[in-house]
């Protein structure tokens, strides 16, 4: 049982950002930044300011890595540095420590008044498809019950390349995309604003290591090559996707935007929340045989909020529903020699649980629009309406220790003319 | 009819790099670079050296854009600068000009002794699928005659996201990838080196403009947002691809490597080789209606060369076989608001002609291995063997004016243990 630590910074018991978390982000505040910070309670710890006080000198971290608009150079320092910095920051923040506390005013920033930026430069973005329930649900709707789960699905963490340029940080509004679709029963496609706009409840991990072309990351080493995780909304235009995706996969149905939460929660912070691996019922090839306890129990939820209205939680899911875990995904991704770079992102794929209230997309929650969701204001939703805000939250909790992700939110604006 | 110009630099009549071409690349030579250069005959014109002589001062180009290891900052200056620099370089290189010639020794580098680098930092890489013959051939083999050309194919320039990190420059060897495949007739996948290694004869264009998320590039403006073109070998592991690609598209079957030629041939240089657009026999939506003459007549060929052996040209194709042209591809790519960045690459997809000797992949040339290719040394090839080098070449020629791409080559090395 992990020991519940207290900081000299007051942290509400239900805060996602306890001293056990210490997630990394890029913030901008009056006369600071964009630069690296760590969230704690309602504050951001300015890492560059801490380094300038000399309090991190023993770690031999070049202090300029904290003064940049992305975390890539810091992350590239590698796992031993991530772990030693985490240990040192924990020490500095504990309530019996007097090294940092006298400088509180100079190193702490009000979190809610800061602007958060995309925390990494994403070189390549890959999206997996690793929730069995999601793959089954979508398979039934797009291809029928007979072909729902493809023959390869339990042998391969199926994934595909996504668009890196359109990854945006939480809070950035998203215009409804326009595109080409084929109306049911027609043989002539039409052009216009997407009519079936959806979210996908995902997490994503940030790669923390550069590899050379030809190099593979063995599954035993894969977790140490992962810096941390974020919440991820893989916005999807279902009507565009349906018309375009055979045979080469989703393209414009996805590439208009993907939203990430601003705080990267490290694997070290998630360590207390490990659970047994998902019981895979088909044997996998040796390169995909996972070490034990590579799954994490993280509560996830999606809320929908109309403009000026009251939000409604429309899904409660959990990261534990992933059939394939992150080391399996990364080992598979690199087994062909594909090189990865620090800052690359790998989305989990939509995380749907086993019950209808735990599905991770409108497509599944309303079953293709057949079961609309009733909103508190009396309106209904089959898909996402203009001026709706989609909010995803996630946290792990055990033995009184809470480690959360904050949220990723995004408002849908009408299509541009 | 374009006028055939002569330079004070001797250029062989069959050189790809006549004064009409002036393609851009990043070279490294003794005490120079990596930095920007322009190929002419057997030389490279060192653009930074030319700028330092003050000979480009009237163009107001920041000279440091030529002293960087990628062309992105130069390309970002935009089409008017590309065009004015091309005009000025043409002037400086013409045989009646005496401004640059006295400085020849300081600005010219022996091209064959220089090392060429990847010319751009590729943010995102997209691969299209725009040759009707290729799509039909592959469709027949993977899905049968009935489903060969999907219903969307003549309405959409079908494309998908590829892997940017594994794009390499010509001359870089490629290790045979390893991966998971499903042997015919089996229900248990196996792991090992790819057995059906293939090339794909493609070109790719380099995006020359940054757009904002939500912004679309209208088809009338699309060509001016393209900096230039290269030859592109989209290496493919057919056995890995076949097992993984349904339903989300190719992934590890492609991501182990894609090779590009080092010299970017500008659209301005290709202007004399315009031909009428491909006669599309199905009406397209207005956003895809192409302006006239957006197709180019560029001869393409693929040669195969065993180690220490003699090369054999195994395919002669042409860029004109593209059903969808580049402005159609870029307009489609951005119609949903997907932002593009300078340096982004868009592959054409395999360019196959109408006759069996013009197909752009081994898969098609040998028809899935049923018709092996005989090599000069008496061996045969169904797919690519270890230590084979695949060489692609391309050039346009008209009225005695030749504008070529040079080549993209890559040797296949055995799978890493």
Polypeptide structure, described:
Two copies of one chain form a homodimer. Chain A has two domains: 94 residues, SH3 type barrels, CATH 2.30.30.230; 289 residues, Fumarylacetoacetase-like, C-terminal domain (Fumarylacetoacetate hydrolase, domain 2), CATH 3.90.850.10. Helices cover 17% and strands 28% of the residues of chain A. Chain A is built from ten helices and 26 strands. In chain A, a hairpin with a 2-residue loop joins strand 2 and strand 3. In chain A, 53% of the residues are buried. At the A-B interface, helix 5, strand 7, strand 10 and helix 7 of A face helix 5, strand 7, strand 10 and helix 7 of B.
Labels describing this entry:
homodimer; 417 residues; alpha+beta; SH3 type barrels; Fumarylacetoacetate hydrolase, domain 2; 2 domains; 8-stranded mixed beta sheet; 5-stranded antiparallel beta sheet; 10 helices; globular
Main beta-sheet strand count, sense and barrel state of chain A: 8 strands, mixed
Backbone CA Rg of chain A: 21 Å
Domain module tally of chain A: 2
- Average pLDDT rating of chain A: 97
The proportion of residues forming helix of chain A, as a percent range, comes to: 10-25%
Give the class of chain A from helix and strand content and strand pairing: alpha+beta
Uncertain runs of chain A = none
